[in-house]
Amino acid sequence: MPTAYDVPAGKLIPRIAEELKKIDTIKPPVWAAFVKTGRHREKSPIEEGWWFVRSAAVLRRIYVDGPIGTTRIAASFGGKADKGSKPSKAVRGSRSIARITSQQLEKSQLVKKEKDGGRTVTGKGRKLIDNISTQLLKELAAENPELTKYL
């Protein structure tokens, strides 16, 4: 069965985001329209459903790297901060966004906390990602017959 490792993240994350929009426990907070996603950003996101895309990306990140904590999740969404004439410096993304998306995924039983720290994907979350990966790989295999060996 194809997994998240077998399909491109750029095609998988929007599909997961569409499924997350159907879940009631995952919704953007009131402040999400005004907040920047990290101190390396100049403005807040313009895209309408960016919260669901970020939640899907966090779910995939936990799937691939789990168990993983919110600080490492925030670091994976970081970037380079422009410090003017000084050299740019690598900074983390918003830990608040990483924490709240992780908590919402936990409420929807897609992610669970580990006793040693960090979060991992539950069976329900793994099933969601694997089913979407399978559908996506079947569509990609229709375009490129070489991919049928992964099915």
Observed structural traits:
151 residues; mainly alpha; Arc Repressor Mutant, subunit A; two-stranded antiparallel sheet; globular
Question: What would you note in describing this structure?
Answer:
- This protein has one domain: Winged helix-like DNA-binding domain superfamily/Winged helix DNA-binding domain (Arc Repressor Mutant, subunit A).
- Helix content is 46%, strand content 8%.
- By secondary structure, it is mainly alpha-helical.
- The radius of gyration is 17 Å and the shape is globular.
Task: Give a quick rundown of the structure.
The chain is mostly helical and 151 residues long.
CATH superfamily: Winged helix-like DNA-binding domain superfamily/Winged helix DNA-binding domain
Sheet with most strands: 2 strands, antiparallel
Give the tally of structural domains.
Answer: 1
User: Strands across the major sheet, in which order?
Assistant: 1-2
CATH T-level topology:
Arc Repressor Mutant, subunit A
**Dominant shape:** globular
- Rounded to the nearest angstrom, the distance between the terminal CA atoms is 6 Å
Mean pLDDT: 90
Q: Which structural class is indicated by helix and strand composition? A: mainly alpha
| Poorly predicted regions | none
Q: At CATH's second level, what is the architecture?
A: Orthogonal Bundle
- What is the chain-wise order of helices and strands? HHHEEHEEH
Let me know the number of strands. Answer: 4
The DSSP helix count reads: 5
Rg calc: 17 Å
Helix percent band: 40-55%
CATH class: Mainly Alpha
Strand content: 5-15%
